[in-house]
Design a protein that fits this description.
The chain has one helix at 8-18, and strands at residues 3-4, 33-34. It has 40 residues and is α+β, with helices and mostly antiparallel strands. The two termini are 14 Å apart.
Length: 40
């Protein structure tokens, strides 16, 4: 199902807190429409 992305910055912080070895690259910003199956 398509959706509007929200909370990507929070997700990035959480992953970094869990492990400093995590590589996190935002491909889509908050507020952007995302199609089903699209990589975020």
């Amino acid at each position: 199902e398509d959706f509007v992305l929200s909370g990507i910055d929070v997700a990035q912080r959480v992953f970094k807190l869990l492990s400093s070895d995590v590589a996190f690259e935002k491909l889509i910003e908050d507020g952007q429409n995302v199609k089903r199956g699209e990589v975020v």
